[in-house]
Design goal:
This is Putative membrane glycoprotein lig-1. By secondary structure, the chain is mainly β. It has two domains: about 90 residues, Leucine-rich repeat, LRR (right-handed beta-alpha superhelix) (Alpha-Beta Horseshoe); about 100 residues, Alpha-Beta Horseshoe (Leucine-rich repeat, LRR (right-handed beta-alpha superhelix)), CATH 3.80.10. Helix content is about 0%, strand content about 20%. It contains no helices and 15 strands. The chain starts with a strand and ends in an 11-residue tail after the last strand.
Amino acid sequence: MVELDVSDNPIRHMDDYVFKDLSRLESLSLRNSTINQVAGSPFMGLSALERLDLDANKLKELNDGMFRGLENLEYLYVNNNPLADIRPSTFHQMGNLQVLSIGPNDVTSLDKDLFRYSLRLEELYISGVQFSSLPRGIFRPTRKLEVLSINNNKQMAAVDKEWFKDLPNLRVLNLVNNSINNFQPGVFDDLDDLEDLFLSDNAVQSLDV
């Protein structure tokens, strides 16, 4: 078996090593399954898994133990979960991750080292979160990033130039529907490959790009 879709089921709880006999699995969808508790490392043994969909569950926390064994994962979707905490080492074992989508959720901050080993990340979507700022250097390891979307975050009122200085390959930047009223001068100067910039539905009164 290479693909398994068990979405829209009242699963709620995932046990340790629950998928251990599905070593050939490449795609797993658990979306809209009301999962609210994860024991140990449920995905251990899924070394061939490339795509994991955990959208629309009841997860309140993400940690590295939860994703242990997913060293070849390329696509991870954890949208529409009531997350309150994403541990700093959550994605450290997924060095092959290329697309990550998280939000909306209740996370109020992201750790500087969250993407420390996300060296192959190409697309990052952070939507509907609750933080007002980002730590400087958080995107430093993600130099291959081509698409960055930080949108629908009404707590964010300013953008720091340091956020984007380490993203030489960024083509698309989406900052739609935040509360941004201030951009530091030269904030986009290091984005030489930028093609599309979306700034609608903010509180911008003046702009120097």
